[in-house]
Every structure is written in structure tokens, then in C-alpha cells.
User: What shape does this take?
Amino acid sequence: MIRMRFGLVILAALLLSGSAAMAQQANDPCAADIKKLCAGVQGGEGRITACIKSHLAELSEACEARVLGVGVTGKSCKPDVAKLCGGIPAGTGGIRACMKSHMAEVSDDCKGAMSQAAVGKKLFGRGAP
Assistant: This one.
């Protein structure tokens, strides 16, 4: 009887941990990208952020949406938006598409802000969406 209870407790814990992992991925659209693109990179001292910064063009759609959200609205990216996408009306999704197509030309400050958003860091004046 004790073994059966123990087995049920272990089974419940495994099921709950799986649900928690799925919920975490739903709340963190970049978790899988970080795991895939930065496998083997030890966390700390900004190494994960730097890794993501070097892989911005390879992000999944969900993570890219988070990152481009900061790219379009974040303070660090305003000069880039004005320079690269100035003639595009806001609210149509065109600025996000424009920033995506000009990712190679985006400033280091803006790329840094987008990378921080990918790893879930709060930005001064703008939290990760």
C-alpha cells in the first residue's frame, strides 16, 4: 500500500512538472529558442543575452514577436525605427516587418534591448512584453 501511494505521488509530481513546463513555455516564448540556439552557453555575466543577440535572425515566430515588440516600442530602438522605418504608419504591423527585414542594420543598442527581452529581463522604462 505504501509503495502504491509513493508511486502515485511520484506520478502526480511528474505530471505537474510537465504541466508547469508547458505553462512556462507558454509564458516564455523564447525558452525553447534559448535552449536550442544557446545550448552549452553557461548563464551569467550576460552570456545568454549575447548568444541570443548573435542569433536574432534565427528566432521562432513566437520569440520573434516578443523581441520585435521591444524593437518597435522600446526606447533603445526608437532611433532605428525612425531611420529604417520612418515612413510606415503605426498599428498595421508594417513597422515590425520593416524592423525584421532590416535586422542586419539595427543598432547594437536596439539589438541588445531585443536580446534582453528574449531572455526575459526587464528593461528600463519598458518591461519585456
